[in-house]
Amino acid sequence: MHLGFFSPPYAQAYVDGRRTLREVIEWDLQVARWADEYGLHELFFAEHHTIGHEPSPAPDLMIAAAARETTRLRLGAAAHLLPYHNPMALATRLMYLDHMTGGRYIAGFAPGSFPTDGQFFGVGPGNAKMMDEALDIIDAIWTKREPFRIEGEFWTVDMPAHSTQWNGPHLRPFQSPHPEVMMTGVQPTSPTFVDAARRGFSPMSQQVGIVALRQQWATYEAAALEAGHTPDRANWRVMRDVFVAETDDEARRLFLEGPAGRTWDELVLPTFRAVRDRGGKPYALGELLLDPGMTIDELTIEWMVDNFFLIGSPDTVVEKIIRFNDTLGGVGALLSFTFDFSEDPEPYRRHLELLGREVAPQIASVGPRALVAA
């Protein structure tokens, strides 16, 4: 099992005018340097265009910058929002990025979920259709070696034959046949997971409860088998916040009373509690986090710290991760949100050090193959 991170980034201080956008960027790069130094595995950057508290409109630029600051850390997008890009331009840029990172790049694709981003780009409810068409185009550009033409509903690509005069087209991915592609899902029977499985891409589960996670894997597994692919739990990434300190009490206090707890309490949990309409029936996204028998009113940051997140001393966190992995039947990687500890960075630096040097070695052999064999 690998350990990694996902940076939205959460930047309430930027929204409040206490930090500049460059400072937000520099904190992300500092986290990347520490993660690389302490032997952690991967870091993903988000794409949002109109969301002030998650200001990251260009994950490819963050990956390029972080690649110059690191040597081992794998760097990915979670995700490039395909309806907001010309897929031909994106495909070639990402091949270039694959070379720039020396093959450390992971491609993540999604349709986009914030309505104001869709409004900004003039993209309506056809997001899923646009994403599907863009995926077909990107895959063709990455894998086909002969001239081809695809006329879609939204874009047309006309790949010319190789010209000796221009010595091109010439770009190919650094990784063969192309970078790993990952798609994220939230709902238990996520249609994104079905599409990922059909295409042979990797799944990444957002922070939801055990019941939802089991359903997500079952959805992905069934769709992969139907498409003739062999689903591999080693490729399954699951998001679940982890925080490590010298003792259990210190870890709990630093998470609960620090930037991580404030971010969840003031920003993330209110979003999860928001009521949305699903088929005419009230539905709270936060219900996906709950244990069976709980109500949405019981969803508090204190409950999550004690029952949902993986928080404690190195030994406690190792035990929690192994139990979490065992409960799910095995996952390939565990990803945590990053948080803005820049005003007092030492607790976060130490968290990363303990995670990389004490926790990661103890769980390196824990994974789907060991558990399935057992």
From TrEMBL:
Belongs to the bacterial luciferase oxidoreductase family. It holds the Pfam family Bac_luciferase. This is LLM class flavin-dependent oxidoreductase. Residues 1-327 form the Luciferase-like domain. Keywords: Flavoprotein, Monooxygenase, Oxidoreductase. The lineage of its organism: Bacteria, Bacillati, Actinomycetota, Actinomycetes, Micrococcales. It comes from the Bacteria.
